[in-house]
Write a structure and sequence with these properties.
- The protein has two domains: 321 residues, Neuraminidase (6 Propeller), CATH 2.120.10; 136 residues, Methylamine Dehydrogenase, Chain H, CATH 2.130.10.
- The protein starts with a strand and ends with a strand.
- The protein is elongated, with a radius of gyration of 28 Å.
- The longest helix has 4 residues.
- It has 618 residues and is mainly beta.
- The relative contact order is 0.12.
- The strands form ten sheets. Strands 1, 2, 34, 35, 36, 37, 38, 39, 40, 41, 42, 43, 44 and 45 form a 14-stranded mixed sheet that branches. A four-stranded antiparallel sheet has the order 3-48-47-46, with no helix packed on it.
- Helix content is 1%, strand content 45%.
Length: 618
């Protein structure tokens, strides 16, 4: 079905400026077809096995591995997820609805951690312990125990784990019984128990020292084997040796870093994954989704699972020859994605890293690093450098992140805190970064093909024509090759252009620092379709442009539309994707949002299913 504009609103007069583009449908087959060729970022891919973080994203609580061969970790702020090691979601359980916020204790008092004791998960949540049998049916809520704790060991021994509260360290079992171990007078950070029953704690030295070290604290410890030993890192955890091999200590740091130590607390070899091995050695690839690891589980001789601050689970393989770990699978979803980009190489940029177009749903992000400020846009420069555009939370905030290779951040000029949409667009012979708020006001500044800022910022305003609805909820900004800008606002797509004379005499661009006033050229929001088809946009839209095509995420209508868009004349709807109803198979999208396109490819954040869909038009 070809769909064309029945009237083109060019706003040559005040009367026509207030009109909207109206589309009508002819009863013909679509000239092109949009096909989903796969999923990125959701290891469950589609259907009932799709992974979701429910309510809102939350850190993991330390992945555990049961005797049935399944993995457990937090699945958002309100649920616990159970996974197959191949990445599929198997079951979901509500998170405890009770908790004691602000509980006393160490640095993890208001947080979560877990330990497996036999066939029961013991969960520490906001100062209280809970239990959940791994044999419980999906939907079972953990049962509260009458035990408060600020720390919980990642390992157990003979039915007992180690917990702590206010310096009191004790053993605890799933029946709620407690056995005192010892009391320390300084701040506690970690507790752990080995397969022999040896108990270790990391706590701060006596004042005025701020050093914290590891001590063995059980009554059976020989006098010469009580430590102290230097801090290993966060969430220290012991794994027994197998087949006559020595056991190892593991600990976590930022930048997705994991360290390994021998039984004597000596580096063996030290950093085995991640980028916190010292900036002096230059860039080391890390994965921000694995920052500040919370706990590990062992699946096999050289296979481990770990989770961190984003709640994603990663499978790690120990490489004996290289003496380091390699991430082999990402188990999780994409609960948030405010901007996405794709370049000619097929790199799909999302949340501070990228996937290759050929990657599967369980592949981890490459060159990943945290996004520190509000992300309002992503764009690719003429030199194929992808940059992320951030709203500034304060003076000196990060405002651009170059994503080709290791991320490179720039801190000036200041993008307004209220900016909600950003893009890179030509202005004469220059390219500029644009960042505007919901009413179309903001800033623009020059940018090189390599993503470097240049020149002084200019004020920007997107003006609607008299009589037309003003901008109030502008959500995205998309650049066209000739410098026109498309904004989406309240269910309409609005085209803006610089008036004649806005550029300097040579046409190279606007005068440095001069205000840029873009005026409305046309807008559209509806078209007429046959057979009762839905021929209007929903209230929330996102757009992308490439190769003469305008891609539109119609969030509320659960679909993606593709228009042929020329410099002049009537846009033509050439293809659609989605059934118009929520769905989780590969022919559906549920509330599609951020979208990007390059050539015949587009990628869209299927927000209701927490995944990226790879779309191709043919």
């Amino acid at each position: 079905m070809h769909v064309k504009l029945s009237s083109l609103t060019t706003f040559a007069s005040l009367a026509t400026r207030a009109a909207a583009l109206v589309l009508f449908a002819a009863p013909l087959a679509f000239a092109e077809t949009i096909t989903c060729t796969g999923v990125l970022g959701n290891s469950g891919e589609q259907g009932a096995t799709l992974v979701r973080q429910l309510d809102k994203p939350a850190p993991g609580f330390g992945v555990t591995y049961d005797r049935f061969g399944t993995l457990w970790d937090r699945g958002g702020s309100s649920h616990i997820n159970r996974y197959s090691p191949d990445g599929r979601l198997l079951a979901t359980y509500p998170f405890p609805t009770q908790g004691k916020k602000g509980s006393r204790g160490g640095n993890t008092a208001v947080g979560t951690s877990t330990v497996l004791i036999g066939d029961t998960l013991m969960i520490k949540y906001e100062g209280r312990l809970y239990t959940l049998p791994v044999t419980a049916p999906a939907g079972t809520e953990p049962s509260p125990m009458e035990v408060e704790a600020s720390l919980l060991s990642p390992s157990s021994h003979n039915g007992w784990a180690v917990a702590a509260l206010d310096g009191e360290i004790f053993l605890v079992n799933t029946a709620g019984e407690k056995k005192p171990v010892t009391t320390v007078k300084t701040r506690l950070f970690d507790v752990e128990i080995t397969e022999t029953g040896a108990i270790y704690a990391r706590y701060m030295d006596e004042a005025p020292s701020t050093t914290h070290r590891v001590h063995r604290i059980d009554a059976a410890a020989p006098a010469d084997a009580r430590g102290p030993w230097p801090r290993l890192g966060n969430r220290m955890q012991w794994f027994p040796g197998r087949d006559g091999q020595e056991g190892k200590w593991f600990a976590h740091e930022g930048h997705g870093t994991i360290r390994r130590f021998n039984a004597d607390f000596k580096p063996d070899p030290g950093v085995v994954l991640g980028g916190a091995s010292g900036s002096f050695i230059g860039y080391v690839p890390g994965d921000h989704e694995l920052d500040s690891g919370i706990g590990m589980a062992r699946l096999g001789e050289n296979l481990f699972a770990v989770s961190g601050r984003t709640g994603m689970v990663f499978l790690l393989e120990w490489q004996p020859d290289n003496r380091r770990m390699e991430i082999v699978r990402r188990i999780g979803a994409i609960p948030d994605c405010s901007a996405v980009a794709i370049n000619r190489e097929g790199k799909v940029y999302c949340n501070g890293g990228y996937w290759l177009w050929t990657d599967g749903p369980d592949v981890p992000l490459n060159h990943s690093r945290p996004i520190q400020d509000d992300l309002i846009g992503a764009a690719t420069t003429p030199d194929d450098t992808t940059i992320l555009i951030h709203a500034g939370k304060k003076e000196g905030s990060v405002h651009l992140t170059k994503m080709n290779g290791p991320a490179d951040r720039n801190k000036a000029p200041v993008i307004p805190k209220d900016a909600v949409a950003g893009t890179v667009a030509p202005a004469g012979k220059r390219h500029m970064v644009f960042a505007v708020n919901a009413t179309g006001r903001g800033v623009a500044f020059g940018v090189t093909g390599r993503g470097e800022m240049q020149g002084k910022p200019s004020d920007v305003e997107l003006q609607t024509v008299p009589g037309a609805a003003p901008l109030t909820k502008l959500s995205t900004l998309t650049a066209l090759p000739d410098g026109r800008l498309l904004g989406t606002d309240n269910g309409a797509i609005i085209e803006f252009a610089l008036p004649a004379g806005a550029l300097d005499a040579k046409g190279t661009g606007p005068a440095e620092g001069a205000a840029l006033i873009y005026t409305e050229a046309r807008r559209w929001s509806t078209w007429t379709a046959d057979a009762g088809g839905d021929a209007s946009f929903g209230a929330s839209l996102r757009t992308a442009f490439s190769k003469g095509r305008l891609w539109v995420s119609d969030t509320e209508k659960n679909r993606v539309l593709c228009f042929a868009l020329s410099d002049k004349g009537e846009p033509t709807l050439v293809a659609t994707f989605g059934t118009g109803k929520p769905g989780d198979d590969l022919a559906s999208a549920t509330r599609p949002e951020a979208i990007a396109a390059f050539g015949d490819r587009a990628v869209v954040h299927d927000s209701g299913n927490q995944r990226l869909l790879k779309l191709e038009i043919r």
